[in-house]
Write a structure and sequence with these properties.
By secondary structure, the protein is α/β, with parallel strands linked by helices. Helices cover 36% and strands 14% of the residues. The chain has a 4-stranded parallel β-sheet, sandwiched between helices. A 3-stranded antiparallel β-sheet has the order 5-6-7, with no helix packed on it. The termini are far apart.
Length: 167
Amino acid sequence: MMEMRFLCDEMLHGLGRWLRAAGYDSRIAGMGTADADLLRQALSEGRLLLSRDRKLLEYRGAGRAVLWLEANDLEGCAMELCHRVKLNWLYRPFSRCLQCNTPLRSTSAAVWPDLPDTVRASGMVLWCCPVCRKVYWEGSHVTRMRTRLQEWQSRCRGEGPVPEPAG
C-alpha cells in the first residue's frame, strides 16, 4: 500500500503542520504559489493537493490530485480529511520535522551544547532534523499535541472525546 503524501495550499498551512505531526509527508505551498503550479507539483510528486480553493477543481487533471475541503476551521478540516481519505492521526506521530518535513533521526544531547540544562540532565530521547538542524524532545508541547492527535483519531473512529488522564 502506497503511503499518503500531501501538498497543502497556503490556506491550509496549519493543517499541513498537523499532518507532519501525525507523521505524513506533507509539503506546504509558499505564499502566492499559482494554482497551476500547485496542481503540477501534486501530480508530478504523487501528492494529494488539499485546498479550500474551489477554483482548483476547474483545472484539467484536478480530479486525480485535488481534495477540496469544505470546512472553515482546522478542527473541521481535520475531521473531514480523516473521513474522506481514512487518515490515521496516529500514523507515525512526531517522526517528521514540523518546519521542513524531513524524517527525524535520534540524536544525543552531547551533540547539542545549546539545549536547556533540564533537557540535557533528563536523559530523555532527542530527535533532530538532518536538514534544518532543529532538535525535538518530549516536552509539554508534545504532550499537548499528542493529546490533540489522539482526540482527532478517536473522533474519526466515532468514539467521542478522549477522557482526561487520571492524576
